[in-house]
Design goal:
With 130 residues, this protein is an alpha/beta fold. It has one domain. It is built from 5 helices and 5 strands, in the order E-E-E-H-H-H-E-E-H-H. Helix 1 crosses helix 3. The termini are far apart.
Length: 130
């Protein structure tokens, strides 16, 4: 029997869940789907300037798993840029951090939770919609 998948800890949902180039043509209707945990590795490693080791500790998974997730995320970003395709961020095996700064230490927990925007893009921030 296979071992169950370990959920990755994510500290904040993306502010926007869809990105589309202005010049996106009609025949490119299938968006590239990036999982929430892939987004988190890009956020932590590229934007947060963390090492894969630090990212693994933050997400509560093995460094080799982070490496695999990160490589997949970068491939998807490249596909969007080169092929001028829409990027959609959703799904995956993750758990949203409960906001306990002592346990997590990231400083972002609970600041942004994903909610559907008025236009259906998922771009509403919690602070803005209350």
């Amino acid at each position: 029997m296979a071992r169950p998948c370990k959920r990755r800890r994510v500290c904040a949902m993306p502010g926007c869940r869809r990105f589309r180039p202005d010049a996106c043509s009609a025949e490119r209707t299938h968006p590239v789907v990036m999982m929430i945990d892939e987004y988190e590795t890009i956020r932590l490693i590229d934007y947060g300037n963390m090492t894969q080791e630090q990212c693994a500790k933050q997400m509560n998974i093995a460094r080799t798993t982070v490496q695999s997730i990160y490589n997949s995320a970068r491939r998807k970003l490249a596909e969007c840029l080169v092929e001028e395709r829409e990027l959609s961020i959703s799904g995956g095996e993750y758990e949203l951090c409960d906001g306990d700064f002592v346990k997590c230490g990231c400083g972002r927990c609970g600041k942004r939770k994903c909610r559907e925007g008025k236009d259906g893009t998922g771009c509403a921030k919690e602070e803005d919609s209350e």
